[in-house]
Amino acid sequence: MLVSPHSSSNPKMIFQVLFIVSLLITSLSSADIAFDYCVGDLTLPSGPTGYSCKDPAKVTADDFVYSGLSVAGNTKNLFKFGASTAFASQFPGLNGMGLSLTRADLEVGGAVPIHTHRVSELIIVIEGTIIAGFIDTNNTAYYKTLNKGDIMIFPPTLLHFQVNSGSTPVLAYACFANENPGIQLVTTSLFRNNLPSELIEKVTLLDDAQIKKLKKILGGTN
Amino acid sequence: MLVSPHSSSNPKMIFQVLFIVSLLITSLSSADIAFDYCVGDLTLPSGPTGYSCKDPAKVTADDFVYSGLSVAGNTKNLFKFGASTAFASQFPGLNGMGLSLTRADLEVGGAVPIHTHRVSELIIVIEGTIIAGFIDTNNTAYYKTLNKGDIMIFPPTLLHFQVNSGSTPVLAYACFANENPGIQLVTTSLFRNNLPSELIEKVTLLDDAQIKKLKKILGGTN
Amino acid sequence: MLVSPHSSSNPKMIFQVLFIVSLLITSLSSADIAFDYCVGDLTLPSGPTGYSCKDPAKVTADDFVYSGLSVAGNTKNLFKFGASTAFASQFPGLNGMGLSLTRADLEVGGAVPIHTHRVSELIIVIEGTIIAGFIDTNNTAYYKTLNKGDIMIFPPTLLHFQVNSGSTPVLAYACFANENPGIQLVTTSLFRNNLPSELIEKVTLLDDAQIKKLKKILGGTN
Amino acid sequence: MLVSPHSSSNPKMIFQVLFIVSLLITSLSSADIAFDYCVGDLTLPSGPTGYSCKDPAKVTADDFVYSGLSVAGNTKNLFKFGASTAFASQFPGLNGMGLSLTRADLEVGGAVPIHTHRVSELIIVIEGTIIAGFIDTNNTAYYKTLNKGDIMIFPPTLLHFQVNSGSTPVLAYACFANENPGIQLVTTSLFRNNLPSELIEKVTLLDDAQIKKLKKILGGTN
Amino acid sequence: MLVSPHSSSNPKMIFQVLFIVSLLITSLSSADIAFDYCVGDLTLPSGPTGYSCKDPAKVTADDFVYSGLSVAGNTKNLFKFGASTAFASQFPGLNGMGLSLTRADLEVGGAVPIHTHRVSELIIVIEGTIIAGFIDTNNTAYYKTLNKGDIMIFPPTLLHFQVNSGSTPVLAYACFANENPGIQLVTTSLFRNNLPSELIEKVTLLDDAQIKKLKKILGGTN
Amino acid sequence: MLVSPHSSSNPKMIFQVLFIVSLLITSLSSADIAFDYCVGDLTLPSGPTGYSCKDPAKVTADDFVYSGLSVAGNTKNLFKFGASTAFASQFPGLNGMGLSLTRADLEVGGAVPIHTHRVSELIIVIEGTIIAGFIDTNNTAYYKTLNKGDIMIFPPTLLHFQVNSGSTPVLAYACFANENPGIQLVTTSLFRNNLPSELIEKVTLLDDAQIKKLKKILGGTN
């Protein structure tokens, strides 16, 4: 037996043990204080791989918990789609952790517009029914109906979408393999800025009238 | 305008266009057929980064969808904890995607035993209330009560746990930053094998009686 | 001096030195034979990170050289754009090297259609003038005129394009930060497959007529 | 149809739509502002993976374009070799992008001295003829003549070189799989510093006279 | 011959050569000054991948050498185990280098307590005999006796241990695949903090008495 | 004299050397369904990131232990340097683990020739005294005397060396941040193959006589 109850009940011995163990622990883990986690400090410079780390001495359990997804995003929009996101900029505890989460609410007839992002997405349907799919670089479309409890993986970067194909609202969660997935919606990317219509026409083959109509709806110019 | 309705209604022109576009598309994306995704083929050799890829010609939408999490795991066990996992070995579409998912069901009084894995975990509470936490390499414990809709991040490798702290069953999903997180439960790792009790005693400081008691409960020998 | 002319001119001594050095070299580098490079063998299984390696004993200098880019791609298509690609599937010497190259030829009025891929792209203009740009995830468009010798970086995944804005043909090379960048053209992804028009309408906000028109031109169905 | 021309021509409705879409867009992409790209700010601290990011609010299209390669590097030197580099320190838009580019000009009889760097290099010959090659860790040399339009891949770290083997000047571009490849020339590394000649002799087997001669030419001491 | 002894003995020519070569060298490697290495500056912000880099102009050979492991760690503790660590926080030259080292001294009867860390560990026995092992995620234990000169690899994250099984003190070195491996000792993680005993009981199945006994020895509360 | 004909012409001694080397090169192993480890199976195809995994069902503790470093490498060579390597090809348990180890033995006056490899190296001196150093891409040399117990880090790819600067043999261990570091010795790379002398002259500035002399010693041709 390494420690007898007797000796461990000896206060002097306990103090000695604690002091020694503290040395042991310090020497073993001091290097890791800042790197077990790196809660983002958005006031410091950021680098290619994320935000700078918040002072570990000021980190508490609250830094690792986020409640923002308990509220549905606003679905009163063209897509009848509400998104609540937990990315590193909203939830800095994710900084460097390689994961983030989005809550998607879809009204009846709603859709997550076709989009892309740097990393994989894994979606789970909590309520309702959707048709979800993606298109690969050979232009093959893979899509399927997902019911409550079904999950689907969307490979990195490939264009994908989800549509409420049922008669009730949809609640789903999407997990991403990065704390900042970089979500880009094709339609808003094309029509909600100052890209000249003629340029868009050349690079998409869309008709001028269609382009101008969507620019008007989405707030684009030129 | 690049193509007039007139010309595009010319069958010969359409054939020409399709032929030309097919050349264009082939030359642009043929290299990517096997690498937009790499659905695991568990009958082929695996490597450090995952399974070999299933023949892309045989891949269908079904390869990217999994329904196994719609069923709760068995909770009739010591921890009153049921886990349904969607890792690459159950859901080969995850191979190379860097994401996986587990459904956790906790009866009243149940717990996810303290465990570790290679990658980050992001958990979301769907039903019930839990106390979740992790311990860093300075032995500081970070734990907090999570209610429905709350999420918490657990850094890579650090020991962590979840306990049903409410009066109703808990349903939660945990997303992992790898298709094979490598989940290791401390208690079963120590007591459910043939590690000699004396060895366990030396490397844990646990009493011999405690070790033998848990070995008996969990099926360990020596 | 380590080796005197005298001793090194002793044939027996030279044999001994060579024998001994060969042992030294073998023990130092035998581990690396297969891993200095991994020329792709497309007949073996592939994995998430690339093709299996060709037998190193059969590798020659030819495996590391490719001449396919000396020929312009066919520009007789809707976009007046020809692409010659050197990805790992055409040039297996690139397997595992993290780089690939495409030659882009643009006729007057031609364009590289808006597209995306998993990795960064760095383009250099050899002949002619283009307007090149990308759109970030806040829908801000960054575009500029590039002349001979100018280079531009396109961040991973973000939608981008190049248009011949001059009065002469354009020759440009694009380098990618992966041997299989996974190039996806938005227009062909949407309209050159069997995605139902109604689905496309919901996820893009495009008009039904526009969708059907482009499906007809590009060979899509439904 | 999601939006009728009628309703979209209603100014109040448009304002409403824009407001709602702006919410949608904000919630979807705010996390990514700093991470779609990370233009290097060389005045801030740098980390192992690159420079800190320039304030995204100050980023313009100019940050992603570089014209420095339109000018040939000075070839009036021992190797008759001129290099113009576009690495992150000259072209901060490359920071975190994993790509960089060098223009190589070789006079008749010129050579890119044998060198090494951390990452792969992919070279394309624009004008002239070269003999290019590398040596693997088994001391096998792989070298070949490259003509206009040919490309060659050089694996990470392995010693390699390019020599103008023709009767005209050579223009070539080399793409690297990192924004800071870390190019090291063997000859200047050995002879252009204060490494004691005896030390160089021991670790290279070169003769003392040869070492001192090259130190004199290249500016080394000791 | 590129440079004749004659010309190189011409002072003017030498100056010219040095000037030209300096241009060449500058243009080739200026981008890499900060990135050949990134000696950690612990006074600047850190990020997910490590510390900020010390000003390269102030870096000397001393930054890359560390003598702290020549002294044995204190073995007067419960485990009769002394650890001297060379992690990036003690030896900032390791920052970004992906390696670190620990010296382990074990008295007769001593043990490295069961622990885990983010990365692989490769151990070599310099003096003495140990029993070393790890447990995989299937609860299978792999352990073996190691004598002087033997090495053993411990996969990332998996629980592992080393015990002095001989009659003499043990000296061993452990190399880690990261400059900050994040070493976590199971016993001190569980019993040297304020985790409520009831919580520990639920997530480990340990008896309340055992938990309280070890908390007392190790300095835990609650 | 470097090699006494007497000792090295002793057939028994040569047989012993070959036998020991064959032991170093011949040892095989396995991996796990959940990828806890991936012991290399050298009979299956390899990929860019390593060997295929051995059937996990056949894995034993022996797969993770290697004794080959308990034997010194042969130092009867030009550099008076013996290397015993534990790379994945000799010790397949390292496959995918990101670590490897080499034992270096240096006779009095011996040296590890200047070399490079893909990854960082961390060396520890067990016996004797060395001068160790590296050169950065600005041609600055960082070198220092290391005594027993000192460690030094060598950044990835940069040219580096170790020289026995004492009056006793040196024993040191070098840990690498990859299971296959890809060690390349500059001198043998240049002079132990069929690279034409004129080519070497152009890319190194070495004199023709020096090149031919070293080719003769090291077994190069042309």
**Rg of chain A to the nearest angstrom?**
25 Å
Largest sheet of chain A: 5 strands, antiparallel
The CATH architecture classification of the largest domain in chain A is: Sandwich
Order of helices and strands of chain A: HHEEEEEEEEEEEEEHHH
> What is the subunit arrangement here?
homohexamer
Pfam families (chains A, B, C, D, E, F): Cupin_1 (PF00190)
Family (chains A, B, C, D, E, F): Belongs to the germin family.
Keywords (chains A, B, C, D, E, F): Apoplast, Disulfide bond, Manganese, Metal-binding, Secreted, Signal
Protein name (chains A, B, C, D, E, F): Germin-like protein
Supply database-style keywords.
homohexamer; alpha+beta; 3 domains
Descriptive notes:
6 copies of one chain form a homohexamer. Chain A has helices spanning 5-8, 11-29, 186-191, 197-204, 208-218; strands spanning 40-47, 50-53, 65-66, 81-86, 100-106, 111-116, 121-127, 130-135, 141-146, 151-154, 160-164, 170-176, 184-185. In chain A, the strands form 3 sheets. Chain A has a 5-stranded antiparallel sheet, with no helix packed on it. The first copy, chain A, has a 5-stranded antiparallel sheet with strand order 9-8-11-6-13. The radius of gyration of chain A is 25 Å and the shape is globular. Helices cover 22% and strands 32% of the residues of chain A. Chain A is an alpha+beta fold and 222 residues long. Chain A has 3 domains: 1-34; 56-182, Jelly Rolls; 189-218, no CATH class. At the A-B interface, helix 2, strand 3, strand 7, strand 9 and strand 10 of A face helix 2, strand 3, strand 7, strand 9 and strand 10 of B. Strand 3 of chain E pairs antiparallel with strand 10 (151-154) of chain F, so a sheet runs across the interface. Chains A, B, C, D, E, F: This is Germin-like protein. Chains A, B, C, D, E, F: It is found in: Secreted, Extracellular space, Apoplast. Chains A, B, C, D, E, F: It comes from Spinacia oleracea (Spinach).
